[in-house]
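Troubleshooting log. The previous structure file for this entry was overwritten by mistake, so regenerating from the original sequence record. Sequence copied from the archived sheet and checked twice against the printout by T.R.
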Amino acid sequence: MGMLSADQARDFLENGYLLAPGFLDSAYCAHVAQAITNEYNQLVESGWKFCAGGRYTGHLNFKSGRYGREIFEMLQQSGLIAAAEAIMGSRLDLFNMGGNMNLPGSVRQDIHQDFAPPSESFVFNVSLVPARSENGATEIVPLSHGARYTYRTLHSTAAIQQCRPIESNPGDLTMRFGTLWHRGMPNRSEQPRPMLCFTMVPTDKKEPTVPDGDPVRFYANRFYGPQAAVRELAEIHLAKAFHVLRMARS
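Regenerated output below.
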C-alpha cells in the first residue's frame, strides 16, 4: 500500500480512523505473534503470576524489539508516514514503538483517549492475529477525535453508544488519531491477542523515543511498583466511583 487516496484521507479526517487491510504478509505477522507469545509464556513459566494491566484494566504492554523496527521501516517505505504527515500538516517523529497483549479473561477497559486535546498524535496499530469481538477487538467511537467530546459529554450525549469493534486480520493496519476515544474489550477466547503499536507526534511538540533492536520485552502497564495488585484491584472494584469522578472533572 502506498500513499492514501483522496477519499481515504477524507474518510480518515472525518471519522478519526482508517482500516487498511493486508498491509503486511499474514505469515510474517503470525511469526511475530508467536515470538511475542513465546516470550510471555516463558515469563509465566518462570513464576511471573500477576500480570498488571493484562487482565483487568488495560493491556499488558511490551517492547516490540527488532520486529517493531522492521515494521516501522516498512511503514516508511510504503509512503504511509508521508501520508500521515500530509494529513497532520507537519513532520512527524516516532514517539513510541511497542505493542500490547489482551490476555484471556480480561475485562472491558474504560473508554479513553491516548492523548488529551490539544495534544496531537498519530497512531498505527498492526494486527498480528485475527481480532474479533470474541478475543477483545478494540472498540472505537467514530467521529470522536479531537476536542469534540469530554468524558462527560461522551456519555451524556449518548455518543458512546456508537462504539464499534475494529475487527481485523493478521497484517491489517489501523490508523487513528491519538485523541480518538476507544477501549479494549474482554478477551473471551483461550488465547492472548497481541498487537503492535507505533505512535508519532509532530516534530516540534515532543522529543521522540529512539527505537532500538532489543528483544521483545514485557512490562507492567498502568499499575507497577509497591502494592501494584492492591491499586489495580481497587480500580476494578471501585469502577463506578472512578466513573463518577471522571464525569465530574471533565
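The mean pLDDT is 85. Archived copy saved in two places this time.
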